[in-house]
């Protein structure tokens, strides 16, 4: 058996439009100017709290604790309004499953929001496990996030590969001794990745199944 560990935002789904809408509503509640979708996409990858810190700091404001709970509730409730799976990703997941790949999600997004999004898009069925940024004491780029997935799935680093669009994915996987595939259709940088997938459709061929 082989294990494919997927990042979520920018890898499985194009979620920047929904994240931007939720973030901009949080900013509006504090009379702060909104960001464009591309600007938000560039800030995604470090988790919800880090996104809020970046946004508030960029607007010359200080993030306070009262901002976080309504933001998380809004994110969980409205994560699939505009979000869509990347073209070809579901077919790639199905092909890999037939070829014997197990699949998990390792995301810095809160796990409840991640599961709600995958469920709404009908994609939860592809994954045995979803690990969020609040599931473990650490999150990507800490290797412990990926190692936690391996432990839960009873798989070794040698049996596994991480697919993601962000440096956090690559750093966390490499620190855990796991091969990396950069999802070039996403939001981030692939420096240091072992392989590069230009399109989701390329994944089964790159990974041999």
UniProtKB/TrEMBL annotation:
The keyword Membrane does not apply. GO terms for cellular component: cytosol. The keyword Repressor does not apply. Its EC number is 3.1.3.18. Pathway: Organic acid metabolism; glycolate biosynthesis; glycolate from 2-phosphoglycolate: step 1/1. Keywords: Carbohydrate metabolism, Hydrolase, Magnesium, Metal-binding. Its cofactor is Mg(2+). It catalyses: 2-phosphoglycolate + H2O = glycolate + phosphate. SUPFAM superfamilies: HAD-like. One of its GO terms (molecular function) is phosphoglycolate phosphatase activity. It is an enzyme of class 3 (hydrolase). GO terms for biological process: carbohydrate metabolic process; DNA repair. InterPro entries: HAD-like_hydrolase_sf, HAD-like_sf, HAD-SF_hydro_IA, HAD_2, HAD_sf, PGP-like_dom2, PGPase_prok. Belongs to the HAD-like hydrolase superfamily. CbbY/CbbZ/Gph/YieH family. PANTHER family: PHOSPHOGLYCOLATE PHOSPHATASE (PTHR43434:SF1). This is phosphoglycolate phosphatase. The lineage of its organism: Bacteria, Pseudomonadati, Pseudomonadota, Alphaproteobacteria, Acetobacterales.
